[in-house]
Amino acid sequence: MSLRIVVCVKYVPDATGDRHFADDLTLDRDDVDGLLSELDEYAVEQALQIAGDHDGDAEVTVLTVGPEDAKDALRKALSMGADKAVHVEDDDLHGTDALGTSLVLAKAVEKTGYDLVICGMASTDGTMGVLPAMLSERLGVPQVTLLSEVSVDGSTVKGRRDGDAATVQLEASLPAVVSVTDQSGEARYPSFKGIMAAKKKPVESLDLGDLDIEAGDVGLEGAWTAVDSATERPARTAGTIVNDEGKGGDQLAEYLVSQKFI
Amino acid sequence: MAEVLVYVDHVDGAVRKPTLELLTLARRIGDPVAVALGAGAADTAATLAEHGAVKVLTADAAEFTDYLVVPKVDALQAAYDSVSPAAVLVPSSAEGKEIAARLAVRIGSGLITDAIDLTADDQGPVATQSVFAAAYTTKSRITKGTPVITVKPNSAPVEPAAVAGAVEELAVTFGEAATGTKVVARTPRESTGRPELTEAAIVVSGGRGVNGAENFAIIEALADSLGAAVGASRAAVDAGWYPHSNQVGQTGKSVSPQLYIASGISGAIQHRAGMQTSKTIVAVNKDAEAPIFDLVDYGIVGDLFQVVPQLTEAIKARKG
Ligand SMILES: Cc1cc2nc3c(=O)[nH]c(=O)nc-3n(C[C@H](O)[C@H](O)[C@H](O)COP(=O)(O)OP(=O)(O)OC[C@H]3O[C@@H](n4cnc5c(N)ncnc54)[C@H](O)[C@@H]3O)c2cc1C
Ligand SMILES: Nc1ncnc2c1ncn2[C@@H]1O[C@H](COP(=O)(O)O)[C@@H](O)[C@H]1O
Questions:
Q1: Is the CB of residue B206 below 6 angstroms from any atom belonging to ligand 1?
Q2: Which of A16, A67, B69, B207 could form a disulfide with B264 if both were Cys (CB 3.0 to 4.6 A apart)?
Q3: Complex prediction ipTM
């Protein structure tokens, strides 16, 4: 039986651009270029490697919840080698928070059908790193997260998690939700052939109705959290910058003394 | 007064500093009730009571170490059910965030992660967060359910507030999901004897400019002269010069010490994301144009192989 892998990928504003808040205190997506979250490229890569290990008897679907432009993220993942894409898009999703996104992703993953869900370790904009755990909770399948190494052996998923106190080897039965870190291995670049092939790959569009989700349960109004204010951090006051002319270390020591660090 | 559940991070009964900081914040909202799990849980009680925990709920079971995350969620949920708290506070470690996330889904509550401050108003806790690589500071609330909030290390002072704390054993029934992900092997991280990176008052970091694993001895010597933790940029980690557990930045640790000293680090946005909220920032870099200099309180444009050893010697001389 073919292994069905669903990779959750997020379309995010470019971190090297100027990210801002819109008037409704959601992320301003108009003024900054978007792209496939770099940390989700690692998830696509591991999915493609696992599919490769199954001699092609596997299907990789990339899934995103996001606005119209989020198709760019799906195209990138398809050009890396994923087989097909699902795009959940609905005006009522604007302003959805983590609880809401996990609800939508869970329904979409179930509708798509899966043996293995692979996520990135965190989105590069929200940087929460909670969606994989939430998805596992909602789907009622094991969570095998923050892996720097992952493999599928029959109906078992195995991986290495480098935790704060220890490195652990984990095992769970499929179906399961996995997340991979940026230590899991460089993501491949799309080849020219891959980019051409991606144009012909199917992208299914789903809205909230298709997933039996009430508009009031998601979006800004339905969110479980509210942002009251967002203030630009004042630029750090210009510091003292000294050219080392042989005494730089001593000068630095004097500075640290003056600041009472020594 | 309402009770506030605080999830305790401890190592064999030794409470880690971020948990004591959480107690300071919890006391702004209500009476802290601590939840300590695993080996040594009961040994945390005295320290927690000294810092204001009116009650400590403890549980120990093999499941906490033999399976990933979910058994701890089952226990925290049991505590939640027995206490009906006004909020649940969890330290913002990778595991802490996952525990908080699952609990939030189970109890139908909103979740805020990586708070750097908490205050209370009549509608409940207000969390301060630092977002977009610390370019913005936001204030947020939870609008549905019981607020579940994870808080970063160094977000509040540790304050003694002794109470006559009670210790109670928590009855936990593990659900079917608890044993879903088995820990088949565990290799504890070796202690370096230096402070924990996320908790340290001073962090000394090296980047690509350090140019080799053996040269990290220079960074370590400076760190040791200051009693500091050692950090590294991703470039240094990817090159294999320093362990990934010491990486500072978006995909490493987020630190907010009193003093951050960066040597041979350019200051890419992903690195800044993990250190920009440090109180005082110092950099040594031979390129005057390096973006790290936009952040510094004090910067030396120079060769780190000259400046850093001279600094270490000067510190040692002063400390006698
Ligand atoms: C998704 C993603 C996540 C990332 N996460 C992280 C992260 O968590 N942490 C992180 O650090 N990076 C992260 N990065 C990488 C980041 O973009 C940079 O590549 C990295 O921080 C660069 O490290 P560096 O400053 O050590 O190296 P470089 O940018 O190469 O800078 C080296 C600096 O050393 C200086 N130098 C060289 N020799 C000397 C000398 N003898 N004396 C003094 N100065 C010298 C040079 O002038 C230069 O400024 C991430 C990137 C991506 C895409
Ligand atoms: N809108 C989204 N669409 C698809 N996947 C997502 C979305 N948001 C988050 N994810 C997935 O969840 C992971 C963790 O995200 P987060 O918890 O938001 O940091 C990401 O790396 C993605 O794999």
A1: no
A2: B207
A3: 0.95
How far is Cα B186 from Cα B199, in angstroms, rounded to an integer?
24
Q: Cβ of B244 and A183 within 8 Å? A: yes
Measured distance CA(A178)–CA(A185) in Å, rounded: 15
The one-letter code for the residue type at A161 is R
Paired tokens of B47? 């320290």
DSSP state of B196: P
What ranges make up the beta strands (E) of B152-244?
166-169, 181-188, 202-206, 229-232
pLDDT digits (tens, 9 = 90+) for A149-196: 999 999 999 999 999 889 999 999 999 999 999 999 999 999 999 999
What letter represents residue B314's amino acid? A
| Residue type at B269 in one-letter notation | I
The verdict on the CB of residue B268 being under 6 Å from ligand 1 is: yes
Length of chain B: 320
Instruction: Count Cα neighbours of B134 within 13 Å in the Cβ-side half-sphere.
Output: 21
- Provide the CB-side half-sphere exposure for B260 (13 A, CA): 32
Search chain B and give the residue with CA nearest A171: B182
Q: For residue B91, give the amino acid letter.
A: P
Ligand approaching nearest to the C-alpha of A129 = 2
Residue whose entry in the numeric block shows the structure tokens 């379309």: A11
Tell which of A128, A151, A158, A164 to mutate to test the B interface (max B CBs under 10 Å): A164
- Among B73, B93, B98, B280, which would you mutate to test the A interface (most chain A Cβ atoms within 10 Å of its Cβ)? B98
Asked if A232's CB is within 8 angstroms of B139's CB, the reply is: no
Angle between helices B304-319 and B216-226 (to 10 degrees): 30
Band the pLDDT of A216: cuts 50, 70, 90: very high
How do residues A56-112 score in pLDDT, each as one tens digit?
A: 799 999 999 999 999 999 999 999 999 999 999 999 999 999 999 999 999 999 999
Look up the pTM and report it: 0.96
Q: Is B299 in the pocket of ligand 1 (CB under 6 A)?
A: no
As a whole number, mean pLDDT of residues B202-223 equals 98
Written as six digits, the tokens of B24 are 């300071």
Q: Which residues contact B292 (CB under 8 A, 6 or more apart)?
A: B262, B265, B266, B267, B283, B285, B299
What is the position in ligand 2's atom list of the atom closest to the CA of B101?
17
Please name the residue of chain B whose CA is at the shortest distance from the CA of residue A169.
Answer: B185
Cis peptide before B32 (omega within 30 of 0): no
